[in-house]
Amino acid sequence: MKKCFWALLCLSLAAPLVHADAGDIKARQQYMKDWRGLNKKMGAIIKKSDAQSFPAKEFALLAVQLNETANEPWQHYDADSRGEGSDAKAAVWEKPQEFQAAIKRFTDAAAELDKAAKTGSYDAVKVSFGKVGQSCKACHDKFKD
Ligand code: HEC
Question: Which residues are the signal sequence here (predicted)?
């Protein structure tokens, strides 16, 4: 009993410090995983569709999720969230303006895709989806190991 008490106390004292960082890293990685899932689903729909068969509503539901979370991960990159368990490059913190520019390229692309999806135009969606993919990759090339 006594041992358990001390173990719990130590845990509760140590946890907030550890969690501040681990929490941010996990949170931002979780958004990225969600986006990978959305991207896979959207890519599969585009691949198996044409202008006639395109399931516009189904696609729009995915695009809106990407757009609505497009600004979420970036608050989890504060100065003390560098470190172990993260694939973020030092450039995130050393070149903040370039990181912001990469974020903007992505959020613009996600907004454009959402808009295109709402029009239901297969061709517009295809072009915008391509731009989203490029914006993911452009950021990863510079800012992710
Ligand atoms: C502005 C930069 C930026 C954009 C835009 C971006 N990412 Fe990322 N992504 C990162 C960084 C940085 C990491 C590493 C995060 C970490 O480990 O701390 C990452 C990690 C990931 C991971 C790995 C997550 C894990 O399991 O650890 C996946 C998957 C991913 N991104 C997918 C995407 C997809 C899909 C998009 C576009 C829809 C996207 N990313 C857009 C910067 C970006």
Answer: 1-20
